[in-house]
Amino acid sequence: MLRDRLQRVLRDLRISVTDRCNFRCSYCMPHDDYEWSPREEILRYEEIARLAGIFVSLGVRRIHLTGGEPLLRHDLFRLVEMLALITELEDLSLTTNGTLLSVSRARELKRAGLKRVNVSLDSLRPERFRRMTRWGELGAVLSGIDAAREAGLQPIKLNMVVIRGVNDDEIVDLFEFARREGHQIRFIEYMDVGGAQEWSLERTVTRREILERLAAHVDFDREGRSRRDAPAREYPLADEGGRFGVVSSVSDPFCSGCSRGRLTADGRFVTCLFAHDGHDLRTPMREGRDDADLRQRIASTWSNRDDRYSEERLKAIASGRIGELPGQAKLRMIQLGG
Ligand code: SF4
């Protein structure tokens, strides 16, 4: 098994298939105009599938497709078909904002081998949803969630990024919506990811606060993570099925079990969500290097990995040095997709 310097195994690969999006969420893309990666630099499906096969040969067992907004890529089902042929894979999932997920498209992805979806849902108030995404229509997202259920892309996880003074008064509403609809809600602490220029610690609602607000509303068991390397801590509801999750990168980092690698749409292997850059795999691949060469590049990049940004951030917070964290520009969330 491929281990990094902190003995963490590479098990999960998040693949960003595009750096473009049809939303402008304030916690990811607070501005209007962006320079997209030139199309010719974006990996073709065959290239992504080839690299995915190599990553799986090195121990990856779960692949998560993301963006930008992955459904902006044409015929994404073709890529899913290629990835679904990799028999060692235990999970193949997708994160989307839901607006381009029609029933026919959801069924097409399901037939191709996609197992489940995560859908971003930060508010249930149409006007607020519009303000937070700048270009998004809540109705289209709710239809996308229903389409996923209709197609059997389940369990459906709903991701809510909680921002103090913006949507934190809807924690219980989103919980109740998910409970009613039979989906799993995950509350995500607002993070200083690349591109989140409006982030501040004061605007982060911590896991402890989220649990306090929910505890006043519903009984739940305070259980740990489902898997040691799972980003979300899960909380089963006391007297009924169902559970919710909290992803607490700021107040309760999970770097010690982080098994996630990331592949950007332009072919860089990135070893942390808060990284400044990644290892270019596209150039050697297009220069005709063979799989053994590419495998060696991936293996040495991971073996030399010692990322634990969230732990360092917590130390900086504890010692009042939050402002002193390395200022070098991080890769943008839009390039990594979470
Ligand atoms: S901060 Fe980096 S190392 Fe820590 S859990 Fe997140 S991606 Fe993994």
How would you describe this protein?
By secondary structure, the protein is an alpha/beta fold. The protein has one domain (12-336): Aldolase class I (TIM Barrel). The chain is built from eleven helices and eleven strands. Strands 7-8-6-5-4-3-2-1-9-10-11 form an eleven-stranded mixed beta sheet. Strand 5, helix 6 and strand 6 form a beta-alpha-beta unit. Helix 1 (45-57) packs parallel to helix 2 (76-84). The chain is globular, with a radius of gyration of 19 Å. The two termini are 24 Å apart. The relative contact order is 0.16. Bound molecules: iron/sulfur cluster (SF4). Iron/sulfur cluster is lined by residues 249, 253-255, 258, 260, 272-274, 307-310.
Task: Annotate the secondary structure layout.
Blueprint lengths: L11 E5 L28 H13 L4 E5 L9 H9 L6 E6 L6 H10 L3 E5 L5 H8 L4 H14 L5 E6 L8 H11 L2 E6 L17 H9 L16 E5 L6 E5 L12 E4 L4 E3 L8 E2 L1 H5 L4 H13 L5 H10 L14 H4 L2
The structure holds iron/sulfur cluster (SF4).
Question: How do you describe this structure in short?
Answer:
It contains 11 helices and 11 strands.
Strand content: 15-25%
Q: How many domains in all?
A: 1
Which molecules are bound besides the chains?
Answer: iron/sulfur cluster
What composes the largest sheet? 11 strands, mixed
User: CATH homologous superfamily name?
Assistant: Aldolase class I
User: Which structural category do the helix and sheet elements fall into?
Assistant: alpha/beta
Could you tell me the mean pLDDT?
93
> How many β strands by DSSP?
11
* CATH topology label: TIM Barrel
Rg is 19 Å
CATH architecture: Alpha-Beta Barrel
Task: Give the proportion of residues in helices.
Answer: 25-40%
CATH class group: Alpha Beta
Note the run of SSEs as H and E.
EHEHEHEHHEHEHEEEEEHHHH
